[in-house]
């Protein structure tokens, strides 16, 4: 076989392969549901506190409840230290002022540099907690260890974490906390 006919044969094979690839892709697309939907979360995050009004300087502890809203058991990772801030991203906004100053500990959790030095918090061991449908895992966070909450006013608190099933970031409800002198 000549070089020219080998080249033509290769081009012909590539053309056939391309057409088959397009046909397969079209078939798969036709079988997919119309308007692909975002996967449903498997957890719902709810935060609360024992009270909503605190004095400046008082410890502010919030409870985080991660409820399995799926139809099957899920595995939720958590740090064995019991520090919820190692499993959840916490955000606090002061009404009209934005985010209050954060503590060195919170900066380290976020991986921020301080005085041109990086300080990193190394979490302890993580465990997976099996949560059945409609059941919850409870953790808590001491907001006073993360934020310098020294000014009276209204603060809005939220937490987030990745859903273990969908890998989508899930946000909690907004919790309003009032600080008084």
Short précis:
With 181 residues, the chain is an alpha+beta fold. It contains two helices and twelve strands; from the N terminus they run H-E-E-E-E-E-H-E-E-E-E-E-E-E. The protein has helices at 3-31, 104-110; strands at residues 43-49, 53-55, 61-68, 74-79, 89-94, 113-114, 117-118, 126-131, 136-142, 153-162, 169-171, 175-180.
Descriptive account of the structure:
This protein is α+β, with helices and mostly antiparallel strands. The chain has 2 domains: about 1-35; about 45-180, Sandwich (Immunoglobulin-like). Helix content is about 20%, strand content about 35%. It is built from 2 helices and 12 strands; from the N terminus they run αβββββαβββββββ. Strands 2, 5, 10, 11 and 12 form a 5-stranded mixed beta sheet that branches. Strands 1-3-9 form a 3-stranded antiparallel beta sheet, with no helix packed on it. A two-stranded antiparallel ribbon has the order 4-8. A hairpin with a 2-residue loop joins β6 (about 115) and β7. The termini are far apart. About 20% of the residues are buried. The model has no long low-confidence stretch (mean pLDDT about 80).
